[in-house]
Protein 1
Amino acid sequence: MLSIGIMAKRTGTKVQTIRYYEQIGLMPEPGRTEGGQRRYGGVELDRLAFIRHARELGFSLEAIRELLDLSDSPERSCAQVDAVAQRQLKEVEARIARLEALRIELQRMLSECNADRVADCRILQVLRDHEECLADHGKPGN
Amino acid sequence: MLSIGIMAKRTGTKVQTIRYYEQIGLMPEPGRTEGGQRRYGGVELDRLAFIRHARELGFSLEAIRELLDLSDSPERSCAQVDAVAQRQLKEVEARIARLEALRIELQRMLSECNADRVADCRILQVLRDHEECLADHGKPGN
DNA sequence: CTTGAACCTACAGCCGCTGTAGACCCTATA
DNA sequence: TATAGGGTCTACAGCGGCTGTAGGTTCAAG
């Protein structure tokens, strides 16, 4: 029987995060001691490890929920699992592409700025005048 | 004199976002009509455009605040501006590196899974057993 | 003068946690 | 068996950066 702290340590999760996963229904409600403390078994530990690993790979909690549901029906086709992973890969690729564009623009800005004073700073000029900017960026974030 | 809606249209910002920027002190409190509606001038428009452009380049609101403060003292050295941009570039590069690792891992997972049934699905196996995974990922997100 | 689009404030919600306060429990040692 | 102190409990607020809603007011065109 594992306390929540042990679970946390074993999976590299914060205690509050585990409680949060329980709250949103990603982790099951575990048994309790007489005093009301959570006690877990190996199944729950595995589930939490699965969740954490999927998080590390960038899957959203919603996607993880889907994967966990799918893995509960072992006889079904795994095409849906593939689709979830494929979707995740596409998202990651899109983020990389966007960040690459930002990286290039930032590098250009930095390399062009040889000014001393703020008044002549190319970086601020580029930020002020969108026209100076080569890239036409998508949405901010990521 | 520009209404908030015009400001929004000109800069591709949502009206609420502009009010939010005002709330957190990134945009100044503008003048008002007798009826209490915000009216802006060109200076505010430029400032908002600056903010949006910097956001598109991935700068945090805190970094943007810093850049705006710096651009208010045109006689100072622009070394600090460079430092902010440099920091941003480093962050972008770090995110790219992390996402690249995820991309590779996801591709590997997908290419290895030739199973039909969920029970044999490599993707789920990799997620279950961290050992199967090559990369040792950092923090989730980005 | 009327209409209806735009604007106002205030607040809740998104994601995925993280931190806090104040109380309670569990276990090891004296 | 009493106590100390670390772990755990609930409940809620806060992060970043917005976005959406409700319910009301104002502005400008016709």
Protein 2
Amino acid sequence: MTPDATTSLRSQVREAIEAAWQRAQADLAPATAGEVPAAAGESPATPGGVPAEPQHAPIEIERPADPSFGDFASNLAMKLAKPYRKAPMEIARAIAAHVVTTATDAASPIASVEVAPPGFLNFRLADGALAATTTRVLLDPATWGRVSVAHPERINVEFVSANPTGPLHIGNARGAFTGDLLCRVLTAAGHTVEREYYFNDFGSQVKNLGGSVVAIREGCEIPEDGYHGEYVYDMARDLPAEILEQARQADEDPALAVGRWASEQVRAGIQASLEHLGCHFDVWRSESTLHKDGWVKQAVDRLRAAGDVYEEDGAVVFRSTKYGDDKDRVILRSTDDNAPTYFAADIGYIVEKFSRGYERIVFIWGEDHHGYVARVKAAAQSLGFDRDHVQMILTAWVRFIRDGKEIAMSKRSGEFITLDELLGEIGVDAARWFFASRAASSGIDFDIELAKKQSSENPVYYVQYAHARIASILRKATEAGISAPAGDDPRLSGLLASVLTGAPEAQLARQIARLPEIVEDAAASEETHGITAYATDLATTFHAFYRDARVIDEAEPDRSMGRLALIAAAKTTLAGALGLLGISAPESM
RNA sequence: GCGCCCGUAGCUCAGUGGAUAGAGCGCCAGGUUGCGGACCUGGAGGUCGUGGGUUCGAGUCCCGCCGGGCGCGCCA
């Protein structure tokens, strides 16, 4: 539990239900002596007849679809109907009777509990809970939205990892945003995250790239399987003569030496593009260092020691079928002096990553790599790691369409749209929102012209507009000599208590208070579309508030200050939601 | 052929087994003598691909079928 994290109101209500359920046990007289019913068929009673510790699945709490049902609803009584052999309504009434509300304890976050058919428990939040939350936002705006998962982990997330043989193209966009968004959400939930980029810096494609640069430089034809993009010509022009000279003196293939130089140029360009997107990486790891530092050899040795390799036709094969793979996989080739395969390097990489102390390693892959999942997990298991600590998140394919036709992309031909070009057209914020608002597993048709046309109508601007509008009101208030009270202002609780009796104010405070839940859900599901939906909801609620409640009114200074406190909290919350998505929150636009 | 993913409003997409299936865009009709009209209010628009099953309850879980995408190298 980090001290600056927030416990969501949902968690507080869950604890209140839990406690009420415990106190209601006597009224609910178990169907069979010694049996403690479990909420969701979990944790059977101990065989000896002694009641087990009351373990059960977490009590489910949801935001009701219909706001007239209150702020939170639980289906607990319906889940308990079978084990208790009682009607859900009866159970619900028994639990409701034991819920502590503000009627008996002024500090309770719950104002009232209602029972509704077929057995729902509906809860209403107390104004005091809303005021306390608003105060907390103002007291420490920087940490508002941070929560604390039950078991924080050190997590490595590897994403993009495109080979440095050409600039990133639009096909790399989804992986970049998906990985970055995941890292932001996991961090906000209390995990420690490192972001990693893996690239091949010595393979045949790199040599190929070097060969293409050399050919252009020397006025020859580019080899048939070479690279033709404009950036190749730029590098041929910029290639320092020393590189060629040194290669000649060392009697090295110039394509190889130039390839090393060229791929580093490209890699640096990729890094710059990613930083421009707001995607920062902590670690850049090259395939060659895995071999050089002995990780690949160590991994192969460990598989061998585990008895999971055999030789076949001169090749060394990993028996991945033992761990659920479709077929066994070659790790050392029969040719090229038993050179390791790409997969062997990946196995070495697993060993290297876990040696750094991560509890979980995550890969963001395009779904075209899904066939790779089983073999990598198999390798992890054979190496003695928990296969569940190796996680793959697959992003569905994005079809880029222009004029009704899918755009084919090929780095070698140079016929592709770069990520930089796309973002120049539609803007980073709009692009981030586009990907953040869709589940990673959902296939997307990205119509370039449509996206450009719609970028000006992108909901992201609706949210940013709400933020800028609040900023404007706060500026105006300062000019009028009224300012928003700070979180530690002794008048704050009185001002909020008075102002929260109004419907627009209470609605806004309710929306603000949801942020920690949204972060919890995003981290648990490892998806961010809940955040975009929430940000839109909050903006809508603010715009309604703006319509119904005038903030600056010199004739009503107390009411003005109470409302200023609320919109300041709303502004922080909007910025927090946008920040989770890596999107800017402008003071004006 | 085998495996994985997907199928929800005209379009792009949400929907942790719960109450009347939602949002944005588009379309139609309205709204401001006041803090930013990049705003607000209302409306039309759905056999949740399809047929069974499990459940007190299924868009959600299971099976079959139809349609679409991807994968099934000692390539990376």
